[in-house]
Every structure is written in structure tokens, then in C-alpha cells.
Amino acid sequence: MNINRAVKAWKNMMMLFPKGMISFVWIVSGLCLGLSLLIVWVGIPILILTLVPARRMLELEEKQQAGEKQELAEHHALSLREAFAADSWRVLLKLLSEKRTYLAILFGIGQLPVSIAALTLALTLPIAAFGVLLSPLSYMLNSLLFGFQFDTLDVVLAPLFAWATPFQRSWIAAAIGLALVLLLPIIFHALGQCYRRWVSVCCSP
Question: Counting CB atoms within 10 angstroms of each CB, which of 33, 80, 161, 175 has the fewest?
């Protein structure tokens, strides 16, 4: 397992939340405002300003996964200018007639729950793994500083290790924590692959 890939996947998971929040707010607020003002024609440019960047955000994420950010940035600026240079009605009808527009809307709205799940896993998995790994240290600190002993394993697992003392059980928990720490690169790499599949589904032609 490539550690650099796992670290990159973890960083991407951490960065998904701000991107997901921005895309969700942009698309939802733009659609609500544009559709409500469509009857007075003001909604047409608002919908164009919402849908064109929504499609570009989807393409940006697709290119980012492939490592082609610069190419996409140039195309994004040119496409947005072309959209406002042409007839507004035709541009809007063209956008609404294409499947990729609706996939971009789905991607932008779905990014918020996906990014929340990614951020939660990116934070809780390492904290839980290292917390369990440090069980012996926690046991010793509690014994020395506070004068009480606690059982590291819960009531479900404790019967399996009835032969061990609480301190020995803390080392068993530490071994489990070490296994979790060693599995973290594999887990983050697998989560990164799941996210790439989500992007590829939304980018399907």
C-alpha cells in the first residue's frame, strides 16, 4: 500500500466539506432564486449563472481526480463567457436539454452529505485508532494520577479475556489499535476509490 496515496486520499477527504458546502449552497440557492424569478425574465441569467458553474464544478472535480486542473480552469472561463455572449433563452434551453446539467445538479446537492460523511470518517477513524492504541498509557495515567483502574474492553469483549488483568487487557486493546492504525492507509485508499466512483457516476455521458 502506497502511504503517499493514502495521505493524499485523507487530505482530499478533509477538503471535501468546504467544497461540498459551497457547491450545495450555490446550486440550491441559485435554482430557488432563478426559478422563482423566471416569470419576470430575471431568472434566466440567474439560472445560467447557476447551471454553467455547476457543470464546471463537476468537470473540475473530474479533472482533479485525473490531475488535469489547469486545462479545466481555462475551459471554465471561456465557456462561461460564451454562455453570456449568446442568446439567453437558447443557452438555457440547451443546458436544460443535456443530461450532464442534471448530473451536475445531482453532484452539487449530493456533495454535501458525501463531504460530511468523508469529514466524519477522516477525523474519527484516526482518533479512534490512536486512542485505542494508547490504552496502556491511559490506564497507567489513570492509575497513577487518579487512583482508579478501568477495564479497557467493554462488557461484550471482556468475557473473552477473563484470564487477563485490566492492565493486560489494555495491552490487548493496544494491539487491536495497532492493527487499526496499520489498516488506516488501506481504509483511506478504499474510501478515496469510492469517492472516485461517485464522481465517475456523476460524470457519466
Answer: 175
Q: Which amino acid is at 116?
A: I
Q: Are 172 and 180 in contact (CB under 8 A)?
A: no
Q: Write down the pTM of the prediction.
A: 0.76
Neighbours of 43 (CB within 10 A): 19
Phi, psi of 180 (to 5 degrees): -65, -40
Residue 188, C-alpha cell as written in the block: 483511506
Angle ∠(124,125,126) on CA atoms, nearest 5: 95
pLDDT digits (tens, 9 = 90+) for 128-187: 999 889 888 887 887 777 766 555 555 555 666 666 777 777 888 889 899 999 999 889
Residue 66 and residue 161: Cα distance in Å, rounded? 48
Residue 131: C-alpha distances to residues 23, 99, 103 (Å): 34, 46, 40
Give CB contacts under 8 A, 24+ apart, made by 60-65.
61/19, 61/107, 61/199, 62/199, 62/200, 62/203, 65/196, 65/199
Residue 166 near residue 140 (C-beta atoms within 8 A): no
Residues contacting residue 85 through CB under 8 Å, at least 6 positions apart: none
Instruction: Return the C-alpha cell found at 52.
Output: 454553467
